[in-house]
Design brief:
The chain is mainly alpha-helical and 527 residues long. 70% of the residues lie in helices and 0% in strands. The chain is globular.
């Protein structure tokens, strides 16, 4: 467990002597000094618990101080163990300390159980305790539980404060529920939303691609006494990520006119340039940040690489990766995945394999996104065998395969005219309880279509729902084998379910009839 230093042990003994003499209650300075020491050094707090303190009058609770000290210094397991060992004398304060330990240890289920136990025992539950629980669930991306706690707070006839609402907005933001976040924000009107409230709601709108609403809130925040800080500005910049990247850059410029932007703001602006592949602008931002003595980190370099990937500029992505390393920074999994994405978009399959090998050399574990990019680029470059090898390697490395990984592998087989393997992979994905999506099914149907397997193509359509790509591929398979009536039935089903045909479906229909040598007059669309 470790032990206090000689000086700390002397402080403990001096405090206990003071308490035994009865003077501890009156010497507030000495008590406060020792309390501060114990709250900062968990070994001192635990040593106090091991003494004969229970027979003394102390101006604070030793179990609470020990639990708080353990939690503060990342020994949350010890804190929870203490909570369980003093169950006979539990107080609301100790429940609060236990909840903080659960929060620190990311044990949200245990935290909810702590709160539920206190409520069942009709202990004193206050708004602050609920705030901690709501925030804990928000960090764990459990917005439903945060909402349930908010409702429990009302059931206990407690009044939510601004911290309550801010925590709820944060929960919705992390859960991608921008409409709920906006509704929770509106409930703060009587309390007066703070800059934290605005930031949380703007971030929620950013996640929901609601940049217009985000900018309205940003303008409102500037007009209110809440003011604007770098976090709020960064949230607004992030909301303009993608198509609205010029607005993001203008927001950064405007903010710099009145305040000093930091790495967070510049990172948000660089990230805003990534989806559209505006790597030149992103690079200019990085250079500008460095000229202003802002030290770049791995995250901003990774965003710049993502911008290069968006433009299929794989050489530039590798250049930025080298710059990152020369700056004594360490690339992480997200960084390498961005480089892999650049290779995939540029169809540089050999370089993608080199990057994947670099991950192993750097002792960084490749995840499902890493393998999906590598499998995808090999498939697009007609190397379906390599795609299957990578899929096998992913499964052997205990990578949690998802439907995207299987879809890219099936697409690789479709590209290589390997319909049998494509069907095997589709079946394998279903066997591991993955919910196969229309992308995977359409790729398998296309593989069957190229091989003239019209019966298998039509079978795969069952339960898929209306989809132009899948139905057209199955109809084409029928047309290849002169099954023009089957093809037309499939296309009529598509039109009946989706309400409209497309140029592709009409072309397939005409080709199907022409292929079979039938007269177009024998069939009229929709007749």
């Amino acid at each position: 467990m470790g032990a206090p230093s000689a000086a700390e042990h002397a402080s403990l003994e001096a405090f206990l002597d003071l308490a035994r003499s009865g003077r501890g209650a009156f010497d507030k300075a000495a008590s406060a000094s020792f309390k501060k020491l114990a709250s900062q050094r968990w070994t001192v707090a635990m040593s106090l618990l091991g003494s004969d303190w229970e027979g003394l009058w102390l101006p604070f609770s030793p179990p609470m101080i020990a639990m708080q000290a353990c939690t503060r210094q990342s020994h949350w397991q010890r804190s929870l163990a203490l909570f369980g060992s003093v169950s006979s004398s539990l107080s609301p304060v100790l429940y609060s300390a236990a909840l903080s330990a659960c929060d620190k240890g990311q044990q949200w289920r245990s935290g909810l159980q702590v709160l539920a136990t206190l409520r069942q025992e009709r202990g004193e539950v206050d708004t602050a305790l609920y705030n901690g629980a709501i925030s804990m669930c928000a960090k764990a991306q459990q917005w439903q539980h945060s909402l349930a706690l908010f409702q429990d707070l009302h059931e206990d006839r407690l009044q939510p404060d601004l911290i309550t609402h801010n925590s709820l907005v944060s929960a919705f933001e992390k859960g991608g529920e921008w409409q709920r976040a906006l509704a929770a924000f509106e409930e703060t009107s009587s309390l007066g939303p703070s800059i934290v409230t605005y930031s949380g709601c703007i971030s929620a709108c950013a996640r929901g691609s609601q940049w217009q609403i985000a900018l309205v809130l940003f303008k409102e925040a500037k007009e209110q006494s809440a003011g604007v800080d770098v976090i709020l500005c960064s949230a607004a910049i992030t909301a303009c990520r993608g198509d609205e990247w010029p607005r993001a850059l203008q927001l950064l410029t405007d903010f710099e006119d009145t305040s000093r932007a930091n790495l967070v703001a510049y990172s948000a602006a660089v990230s805003a340039c990534a989806p559209g592949g505006h790597w030149q602008q992103a690079l200019q931002l990085l250079v500008l940040a460095q000229t202003r003595a802002i030290r770049a980190d791995t995250a901003i370099y990774t965003s710049l690489i993502a911008a290069c990937a968006g433009a299929s500029s794989w050489q530039q992505a590798f250049f930025v990766l080298r710059q990152l390393r020369s700056g004594m920074l360490k690339a992480n999994q997200i960084t390498y995945n961005a480089v892999l994405s650049a290779c995939e978009n540029a169809e540089e399959w050999q370089h993608a394999l080199e990057v994947l090998a670099s991950l192993r050399q750097e002792s960084i574990e490749a995840d499902v996104a890493s393998f999906s990019s590598a499998v995808g680029v090999c498939g697009r470059c007609w190397h379906w065998q390599q795609s299957l090898h990578l899929l096998s390697a992913a499964l052997q490395n205990s990578v949690q395969a998802n439907v995207i990984l299987y879809s890219t592998a099936i697409s690789a087989c479709e590209k290589g005219n390997q319909w049998g393997v494509a069907l095997h992979l589709l079946d394998q994905a279903q066997r591991v309880a993955l919910r196969v999506d229309v992308v995977a099914s359409s790729a398998a149907i296309s593989a069957c279509e190229k091989a003239g397997q019209w019966q298998r193509s039509t079978f795969l359509l069952e339960g898929l729902g209306p989809n132009v790509v899948a139905h057209s591929a199955a109809a084409s398979a029928c047309a290849r084998e002169a099954r023009w009536r089957h093809a037309l039935v499939l296309l009529e089903e598509l039109e009946g379910q989706s309400g409209a045909g497309t140029e592709v479906t009409y072309t397939v229909a005409i080709q199907a009839v022409a292929k079979a040598g039938a007269r177009l007059s024998e069939w009229a669309w929709g007749a």
